[in-house]
Amino acid sequence: MLVVFKDVGLEVEATGGENLLELARRAGAPTGSHCGGVCACSKCHVYVTADPGVVTVMQDDERDMLDLAARELRDDSRLSCQTRVVGDGRCEVRISEESFRAYLDDHHEDRGRLVALWRRSR
Q1: For the chain, which domains are there?
Q2: What is the DSSP string of 57-116?
């Protein structure tokens, strides 16, 4: 199943059961995470458009973390560390500005290339 990181033009094949944060890392998509993917920071906030049954349903802990900490909340907001690919179909991901900035905090050496990639996608 192909997962498309739409705003940065990257794609990755999902084998099933992987979360979007793992897939973003494998694809080289600049998705931040300060907590290591344990639903404790909201820095992996993304926007997901997927066919029904392709990704897991949001659980209460994910919803609570998004409500508490995330900015720019929308109906398609998800935490990439909590969103698993479990079915076949379309899955498009857009990285929130908050997540991109968190990624930059940890990847200073690649800042120029990443900022250019981000600006090109806007």
Answers
A1: 2-109 (3.10.20.30)
A2: PPPHHHHHHHHHH-SS--TTEEETTT-BB-SSS-EEEEE-HHHHHHHHHH-GGGHHHHHH
